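INFO batch 0412 | record 1 of 1 | parsing
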Amino acid sequence: MRQESKKRAAKRRREAGVRTEYLVAHPYCEAARAGAPGVCFGRLAVHEPLTRARGGSTGDPANMRTCCAGHNTAISQNVETMRWAYRAGFLKHAWEGVG
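INFO prediction complete | emitting tokens
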């Protein structure tokens, strides 16, 4: 049995290309530039303000921010940083949508 359908694999490849393009266009920690608490460390990754669990798209540049590993982790695990992230648009509730 196939682990991943051909359709899902094609979607994942398309989205990976969009994420790579976003990282190339934004080669810095957007959270740090926006004034996030804490210090930058680790490699850059694409962060999704509207998570997949809340209906967000993994292939929509409007739902992407570049964050270092430190800020990406803090946004999801540190209460102070989470509060900042909601105010700054780095985290969104499901009812807020993208945009």
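INFO post-check: The radius of gyration is 14 Å.
INFO record closed
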